[in-house]
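Course assignment 3, question 2. Fill in each field.
Student: A.L.
Task: Predict the tertiary structure for the chain below.
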Amino acid sequence: MKPLPKSIRRTAAVLIGLTFFVSGLLKLADPVGTGLIVEDYLKFFHMGFLKGAATVLGAILALAEGIVGAALVTGVAKKTSAWAAAGLTAFFTVISIILLVANPDMDCGCFGKAIKLTHFQTFIKNVVLVVLCAVAFLPPGSEKARNGRLAAFILEAAGLVAVLFYSAFRLPSIDFTEFSPGTELLASADNDYQAEDGLLAVSLYERNGQTGAFAESRLPDSTWTFVTRDTIERNNIRFPEDFALLTFHDEAGDARDELAVLGKVMVFSVPAPDALSPKNWSVLASFLDKTLSRGVNPLVLVTDASCSAIPVTVKPYIFTADRRTLLSLNRSNGGATYFDDGMLVRKYSYYTYPDDKHLDRLVDRDPTDLAITAVSRGRIRAHGYLLYALAIMILP
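Answer field:
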């Protein structure tokens, strides 16, 4: 079999490499989200016993994708990278065929949480990669590696590892969840927001100098003081699909999600409370006190309110929520999310809790400006790194 011209084979290899590199990079930038995707796959293939290793398995696979992609684009270790790319493509294609036939209710996760594809779209994408592999690697060539590209490959591999460690201890630079800065929360899970336009009867309650409006079916707890009754227009109330829904419950099992939309609120999400050490809980409790001193209402959302590791000082603020909801809200175990009148303003991982000066600015500044700044900075960092990575790989 006569090989195709070198330029065509090289172009096909670069296209495969870029696909693998971007796919691996997006997954490494959100290792927790990638772990959730792997959990879905393990559950589908009846391998739930590996659930505890889902995040590690996802990171290893994503790192492999990214490194193989970088090798293909830079042109180093051509035979090894060709076999690796062909093997990964074959593996992904078989998986996509199974998903296409079974059609489970799950995301393919080809590009992490950033780009969602249907099972059919995933299958077509893998078929295209198979064709590109045939063009690039058949028959096996004996081309020498491109001179001077080893340094570029090493930089790219090191960069991928750095992205993984950065994202493991901080939050993703770009938030692809439904809880991104600027998002507004749905106040409650009842049907008040789905009613027809007109007037809605509400009761106004006051607490710590802040006033909240409550529907008659969702009155607050005894910490709020009744002020008066009033009516508000329904016309400008959006339907639930326009909002993000953060549902959590009190000890009695009642939904209390309206607490997150009243005034300034700091939500501490702890999807694995038993995994937090006493020192971690102490840091969280200290930060909780700092938010209280600035008139910010703290809420601590956990998956298990009966966890013995929860300090007594934190228990009054404990509510329970679904693990996936908490991991979507904040990718950090023990992370904090700041809301102002229902708008999600900023997120912090356990390792990046704001200091006193930052907290003061958070409370005093306009929440919309803060949310826009958070989104802009994250996107600038992510896009800047991507442009740098592509330049290092592609430029001679």
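Instructor remarks: Confidence is low (pLDDT under 50) at residues 188-197, 234-242. Residues 234 and 391 are 52 Å apart (CA to CA).
Grade: pending
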